[in-house]
Amino acid sequence: MKISKLTFQGTAAEFEAVRSQFADSPVIETVEATTADEGGRQGEQRTIELMRRVIQRTGLAPNHSRMLKAMAGAGDGGLTKTELVGAMAMTEDQFKGVIGSFGRRTSNTPGWPKEVQFYNWKWDKEVDEWRYWIDEPFRSAIAKLI
To answer: Which top-level group of life is the source organism from (predicted)?
Structure first.
């Protein structure tokens, strides 16, 4: 018998109990998601592997790809909704559809934690609108996946 792919989902402490089972398997980096102001990721985890599943499970729509590239390319400062809409060359209503459909794509990906978001967002009081960004190491991973 041969097992060609073995994955683990759980906490670091839980992994320590089964680490020996993964001795010959490549380890995919896991990063604890940081809590954003409105991001709703309280203590859950997102991983590069989970993000890869979201992106590659079915064909990625061109507007989803544009949105992720713009967010990832914006660095730590991110983009306001107005800047993101401009970067994607679409109307605000079209943007709402893209961001909503990407949320459905993420939440319908097997294994994606319920309270974890793919990207970060917070209310920017200075410009009175939402600001969106993707943090490292996820930014670099997205650049390789799209």
So the answer is: Bacteria
Which residues, 6+ apart, have CB-to-CB distance to 44 below 8 Å? 33, 113, 114, 115, 116
Q: Is residue 65 part of a domain?
A: yes
User: Is residue 45 classed as helix, strand or coil in its secondary structure?
Assistant: strand
Characterise 137 by phi-psi region: left (phi > 0), alpha (psi -120 to 50), beta (else).
Answer: alpha
Helix (H, G, I), strand (E, B) or coil at 131: strand
Please report whether residue 50 resides in a domain.
yes
| CATH code for the domain of 74 | 1.10.10
pTM of the model: 0.68
Tell me if 7 is assigned to some domain. no
User: Does residue 24 belong to any structural domain of this protein?
Assistant: no
Mean pLDDT of the chain: 80
Contact 118, 46 (CB under 8 A): yes
